[in-house]
Amino acid sequence: MCGIVGYIGYREAYPIIIKGLQRLEYRGYDSAGIALYDGENIKLSKTKGKVVDLQKRSKEEITLNGHLGIGHTRWATHGVPNDLNSHPHYSNSEELVIIHNGIIENYASLKKELQSKGYVFKSDTDTEVLINLIEYVQKNENVKLGKAVRLALTQVVGAYAIAVFDKKKPNEIIAARMGSPLAIGVGEDRKEFFIASDASPFIEYTNNAIYLEDGEIAVIRIGKKIKLRKIADDTLIVPFIQELELNLEQIEKGGYDHFMLKEIYEQPNAITDTYRGRMLVNEGIIRMAGIDNHLERFLNADRIIIVACGTSWHAGLVAEYVFESLVRIPVEVEYASEFRYRNPVISSKDVVIAISQSGETADTRAAIQLAKQNGAFVFGVCNVVGSTISRESDAGAYTHAGPEIGVASTKAFTTQITVLTLMALKLAKAKGSISNEEYHLHLQELELIPAKVAEALASDENIKAIAAIYKDSPNFLYLGRGFNFPVALEGALKLKEISYIHAEGYPAAEMKHGPIALIDEKMPIVVIATKKGHYEKVVSNIEEIRARKGKIIAVVTKGDVDVREIADHVIEVPDTLELLSPLLTTIPLQLLSYHIAVMRKCNVDQPRNLAKSVTVE
Ligand code: AGP
Questions:
Q1: Is 388's C-beta closer than 6 angstroms to any atom of ligand 1?
Q2: Please, what sign has the CA dihedral across residues 389, 391, 396, 398?
Q3: DSSP character for 340?
Q4: CA distances from 429 to 245, 283, 487, 521, 612 (A)
Q5: Is 586's C-beta closer than 6 angstroms to any atom of ligand 1?
Q6: CA–CA distance, 592 with 578 (Å, rounded to integer)
Q7: What is the best residue among 258, 307, 312, 385 to mutate for testing ligand 1's pocket, by most ligand atoms within 8 Å of CB?
Q8: Phi, psi of 287, rounded to the nearest 5 degrees
Q9: Choosing a second label site near 160 at 20 to 30 A (CA), which of 88, 124, 410, 552?
């Protein structure tokens, strides 16, 4: 989904907006644009391509000075990625200018209406329709910009985070949100304000932020308090300014070639940060306020329904195995996009766990709304602090992975599994569904996981060598059993999304029911064959592959000998409890996909056609 940035204040807006767009580029990178007010006129420059292309073009095209500006980096929804469809968009009079993240669903009918009133359109976008609707209302109702935006938005169906300014009133910006995230950075003494899809564009200037809720509009003027209103009925709202704990270092590459590699190597610390203060091994205590305050709701639940998308869904699948094994409660894992429309049976005795790194994924939010409408209790597991899902859930727990900027999720996956495992252990203890010994054994072993992840990372060079052999393979298969079946799915997803190689993950035993037909001497098959968990069965599966000359890349427990004899390549991970093994076996698969993508010269952090947070349907 798109990234939007705005600035109004005493500094030069251009560098702030350009740097802000670079920080938000993981949200969409089909085109980029900027509009500045230089004290007299609006200067606009936009282009197909990346922010770096915009920098080149804007330097040639516009004077770069001005203390008011807006910028946009696009993930195309309506209209192909080209210069005309890039944002910002002018109104017909070129007095108003807008940037927008989201989708206006009823734009076609609005466009027809405006065309009947003489409005013309240069682009295919829904956004250009919105800015002209605002202009029409402003002129027709003779109202101020803030009111015109609000009234126009009452006619709009869809999702949006927007920023608009008017050449005639260069001391104010209007911002509004419905569905798409929007944060306002409040500068010291209100001498400057920042608008952005998340806090990363303004974190180096201020830690004070206001997160707009759905259906809110803000009138932002220098030196004045922000006027926050409800779009639907114009009621005034007192803004809540929260202090963020984010710092610049966290959103920089820190000497790594890619954010993805940095985030893979951050996992030992991220997992430690995720259980710090929650898991007291010596005391045998797990402290999680989100569970403590609602323990009965969990213990008396008929079932747990997990809703999520993509990698978060894979973490949910691991959680199904973990919860059913430890807590002995039925768990269903649902693709949020299917769950929201298939009219599922939900009751007030259900607990719904919504997993989302960004906390903004539209399908997961809709699944939450549906669950709440049916009386279910919603527990959110999110990484982005202050995100919408974290605010819309009844309770929750953050994964403390720190900002995840690489589009391919890595540390969010392992920290999601860590939080979900802590939840299951806590509930199992409370329910008495595991013995004290088992409980303490899992706590002690979980505490050792960060060091074991670091040990797994030490196989990087070996994995790189394997990647060099298979980087040109057109297909890959990933196989795993039990707790590691979801890891096989996740490994396949990682390879698909960053190297564009077709890959499929399967339960190892499922292979005989079809996929085995794909195997020949050119097919690499990644098999998770760690000692604990159906080891013998997996060895037989490997033999079946070998019989068809498939190339076997096996993830094994350190010191394994049997699989080493029958596999073409082995990657060792330290031994641990079967239930915790996904936290280790996923590491080599992350690195394998990373190295293959780098060797194929793919854009690892910003893979084609993808975006970090999918805020539209
Ligand atoms: C994973 O690498 C992808 N970026 C994608 O599948 C992602 O997991 C999915 O879009 C869900 O995002 P969320 O966790 O922010 O809700």
A1: no
A2: positive
A3: T
A4: 32, 13, 26, 49, 36
A5: no
A6: 22
A7: 312
A8: -110, 115
A9: 410
CA of 573 to the centre of ligand 1 (A): 25
Start-to-end CA distance of the chain, whole Å, equals: 10
**Cα 310 to ligand 1 centre (Å):** 5
pLDDT score of 80 more than 90: no
Is-cis flag, bond preceding 88, omega within 30? yes
pLDDT digits (tens, 9 = 90+) for 349-398: 999 999 999 999 999 999 999 999 999 999 999 999 889 999 999 999 99
Q: What are phi and psi of 185, to 5 degrees?
A: -90, 125
Ligand 1 centroid, distance to 306 Cα (angstroms): 15
Nearest CA, atom 16, ligand 1: 356
Check residue 520 and give its pLDDT. 97
- Residues in Cβ contact with 398 at an 8 Å cutoff, skipping those fewer than 6 apart: 381, 382, 383, 385, 390, 419
pLDDT single digits (tens) 193-211 = 999 999 999 999 999 999 9
Q: Which residues pair with 163 in a beta bridge?
A: 99, 175
Supply the residue whose CA is at minimum distance from atom 9 of ligand 1: 310
Whole-angstrom Cα distance, residue 490 to residue 475?
15
Within 10 angstroms of residue 76's Cβ, the number of other Cβ atoms is 18
| Pocket-testing residue among 355, 358, 360, 382, ligand 1, by greatest number of atoms within 8 A of Cβ | 358
Residues known to be catalytic: 2, 612
- The verdict on the CB of residue 390 being under 6 Å from ligand 1 is no
Contacts of 116 (CB under 8 A, 6+ apart): none
CA distance 124 to 597: 33
Question: Is pLDDT at 533 greater than 90 in this prediction?
Answer: no
What backbone phi and psi angles, to 5 degrees, belong to 478?
-125, 130
Cα-based angle 320, 443, 391 (whole degrees, multiple of 5): 55
Q: Which of 357, 399, 612 for mutating ligand 1's site (highest number of atoms within 8 Å of CB)?
A: 357
The contacts of residue 329 (CB under 8 Å, 6+ apart) are: 301, 303, 304, 323, 427
- Residue 446 neighbours by CB under 8 Å, 6+ apart: 275, 279, 418, 421, 422, 425, 580
Can you count the helices (H) and strands (E) in the chain?
20, 27
Query: Quick check: CB of 309 below 6 Å from ligand 1?
Result: yes
